[in-house]
Amino acid sequence: xxxxxxxxxxxxxxxxxxxxxxxARIRRHLGVVPTASMITGAAIGTVWFWIPxxxxxxxxxxxxxxxGFLAAGVVFVYLMRGVxxxxxxxxxxxxxLGIPVPPRKLSPYSGFQRWAHxxxxxxxxxxxxxAAAHHYxxxxxxxxxxxxxxxxxxxxxxxxxxxxAVSRSDAEADLWFISPPLAWLLAVVAVIAAVAxxxxxxxxxAAIDQWLLPPSATAALQHEVxxxxxxxxxxxxxAQTERHRIERDLHDSVQPRLxxxxxxxxxxxxxxxxxxxxxxxxxxxxxxxxxxxxxxLRNVVRGIAPTILADRGLDAxxxxxxxxxxxxxxxxxxxxxxxxxxxxxxxxxxxxxxAEALTNVAKHARASQAVVTVRFDEATEALxxxxxxxxxxxxxxxxxxxxxxxxxxxxxxxSARGTFEVSSPATGSTIxxxxxxxxx
Length: 440
Known about the structure:
This protein is α+β, with helices and mostly antiparallel strands.
């Protein structure tokens, strides 16, 4: 054990490791691009700064006229939405901070009610007003910093000339002005100060971004709780749907074949003593029934846990599914990029998405081709799965009997905390898309 003298301060942080990271962060906030961004923001702000404010003031002053107030409010909300997107793009392009986007509550309704409710959710959210405050605070700061720098440069160029002109004027006794030597000294100081402002001031822009653009801790926690709750509901619903599917498959396919098999064997037993040839024929039929029942049972089991997926991975399992689809008469292309094995749950959900989607293509789409694309995005740590077909379209996840398979996929994907979408216009072509997070 190494003893440490009490009166000697000990820093447990490895300064040789921390200092380069700290310097790298500082350098990101300085330089030509941040300076150009600040100056551009100041130039745009001299005009743009007043436009949303004017709309807001007009809306407030138009409260007695409900139509005018609502129109101004809608325009203001849409402007601030666009401004937030632009600010995030600017912050990422200039500083590369990777600021997470706050969660946005989405309306569960449809049609006009959805639009109106979404407007209310946006305007009543903390995210909306933080974005508006960020935009005006940043623009105001950029205008102030750039204005001070321009004023210093103007003094640096005009001050010495004015001092020299006054010193040579006949009215020198009547005018007070700094002496030319002092004016030149102050001009040099002003130039240095102006350059320092335009170089260093963007660091505060980055600090404003980091302060107002990220989600609050409460909002992030609420979003995480909501996502976990939604995933739990999806898992429960998916389990119930899967249980009903197994019951239906066993009842409609395996059970009738087993009943028929038992009846055939029983009839063969009665013929053994009286009609041996007929008994042999019945035993042959029973053998065929047993093979058919085994095939049906394998199909049911394949829907529960495909062995090839666990043994050989998602690539081999999807190749098998694509081969079955091609055998049914629909040429299918598989494009897959997987740098490594993914978590078992992700691979399982991806397999079922492709399998169910291709089953729908073979049964209902009347398609001439299908394309399956499975790609792992390393930037987002997510598996992207899409199934395209050029069939008749019209697929949906509604409550109709024909959509039970797609609803089941939606529930499976939500249980894995992913997103599921179906684009299938009545004019044709269907794209089933799932994005499955693979991170912890």
